[in-house]
Structure formats: structure tokens, C-alpha cells
Amino acid sequence: MPEEEKGIKEEERKGTFEEFLDKIKKTESTKEERKRVAESYRKFLKTLPKSKRDTYLVFLGGNDKTAIKREDIPKQLAEDETFYERFRNLFK
């Protein structure tokens, strides 16, 4: 990939991640708001190389050990209020 394209992609990635962070920090967990945050995270994922989208996020704590594929995070953000709050707390 030419250096120009790489730079544009990195700027796009940074911008979409910042948009996601802004939304998740300011948004409560109503179903409609969770959907907007999920869409924002989905946009960020699209800027990542496939090898990065295929990774997992692992929560470890107490008796709870949960792994979720990164590509499945938007769906969980939109549908699962408990997951949303847990994920949101990572960015506070």
C-alpha cells in the first residue's frame, strides 16, 4: 500500500475511534443509544485490517472469564445492556 493511502487510512481509523470514544463516554444504555454506539464501533472496525478484526477481547475478573470476537462486539453493544456497561467501563 502506498504511503499516502496508509496515512489516510490511519487518519480515518483515528477519527472513527475518537468518534466511538466520544459516543460511548457520553451515551447511557438505552437501546437506541446502544445501537448508535454499536454502529460507531462497527465503522471503526471497518478501518482495521482483517487480521485485527479477527482478534478477541477477553474479560478476566473474579469468576468471570469471557472472550468475544472483536467483530461480534457491535452486536453485543446493541443487544446486551450488561455487556455495554462492562465495555463502556473500559474507556472511563
What does it look like?
The protein has helices at about 5-25, 30-45, 50-55, 75-80, 80-90, and strands at about 55-60, 65-70. Helix 1 (about 5-25) packs antiparallel against helix 2 (about 30-45), helix 2 (about 30-45) runs antiparallel to helix 4 and helix 4 packs across helix 5. The protein is globular and about 40 Å long. The N and C termini lie far apart (about 35 Å). It contains five helices and two strands; from the N terminus they run H-H-H-E-E-H-H. Strand 1 (about 55-60) and strand 2 (about 65-70) form a beta hairpin. The chain is an alpha+beta fold and about 90 residues long. It has one domain (about 5-90). The longest helix is centred in the first third of the chain and has 24 residues, at about 5-25.
Which features would summarize this protein structure in a list?
alpha+beta; 2 strands
State the low-pLDDT regions, or none: 1-5
**Strand line-up in the sheet with most strands:** 1-2
State the end-to-end CA separation: 35 Å
Give the rounded overall mean pLDDT. 85
How many helical elements? 5
List how many beta strands DSSP finds.
Answer: 2
What are the SSEs and their pairings?
Layout: H1 3-26, H2 31-46, H3 50-53, E1 56-61, E2 64-69, H4 73-79, H5 81-89
Antiparallel strand pairs: 1-2
Helix pairs in contact: 1-2, 2-4, 4-5
